[in-house]
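#onboarding

Welcome to the new folks! Below is a worked example of what a typical request in this channel looks like: someone posts a single protein sequence, and someone else replies with the predicted structure as tokens. Don't worry about understanding the tokens yet, we'll cover that in week two.

Example request:
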Amino acid sequence: MNEQVLDLYKILGTSRRALAYSGFSIKKRNDVEINDFIKDKYLTALRTIEISKVNASPEKIKELEEQAKLVEYAYRKLRTPYLRDQYNSQLDELKKENENNLISAIPEQKNAYDVLNTTRDAINNRSDADNDLFLEERKNKLISKYEAMIIISNSFSEKEKISLKIKEIEENYQLIKNAQCRKKYDETLKIMEERRNRIKRKENIRLKFSHLREFMPTLIDYKTEDVNHITREKNIVKKHEESPEYKYLNNNNQEIRIKQISKVSFMNWEKMIDHLNEYEITRNVDGREKRDRIYTPSISFFELSNQGSDYYNCVINELLSEDFIEGSKYNAGYIGSVDKNKEGKYITTLDKTNLKGRDKEMLTAVMLLRNMEKRKEKNSKGGEKEHE
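Example response:
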């Protein structure tokens, strides 16, 4: 059996997300409670199968016995925190792999050269006059081929499809029939290809960096009070705390300016106060000044004073690269953290398949904070309209 293609949680009558919650409350289960919950689901599933066997046909009993084996298998794979982490990692890796395969499987849209069974490279190897003649001959040859197919076809729907194909050939030929048309069409084609590449790049960044699936409000001690229809958030506090602006150069000789603008404090589930910082990142992108707000536990300006250090390279060339900053937008601005691996090398966390516990808590705190800010901004605009 392959756990990568089986939903083991579903086999036990639950879901991965349901493990974190206790009933309809927002109380978070600890590992021991989750173990008990999984065991209870396992025993309940087996009891249900045994009850279903009563008065069942031999074929049905055989089917239920196979189902019981799956339940046993699912329980063995989910009964401890370590085993669940292993299984969850495999699920996440499979999900990302499937999403990436979907993107790579998207066929490129046909252009006029494709329709006439040629390429732009082939056209560039001839003179304009030779190309005009070549394309006209190619069009006439293709149309003759499809017209012959219409004659021998006895199907009305098939004749309609072939007629549409002939129309497509003629329309695309008109787009590239001479040098002037080709120049105009190639400019349009270049713009379309650049747009497609931007869309594909953004989708690849989203798949690599988005951790929305790991956003769980129960990961931190977060409460709201509704008093006279005003929602007040507790235990997430943002305090203005501005630093000087520091300037650095990345590997592309691009200047990156960094300054801290606030500190965010929140209480995690263990009732411990944790912090992360909000930074403003300014740089020049394609001739324009670009600013972004990001959230990360800490950027050490002292360690960044050593330009050739491993820390400098990890922060300036990885954590603050355009891809990372773009990817952080799918996480409300949370950009992850910088940690040391077993070899003592600095590494980033946002591009990992699964975030560790503290990163998940910080991601949750940032997303709740940004939701609070959006609501306040919306309420503020609503109040302004009422006064107008």
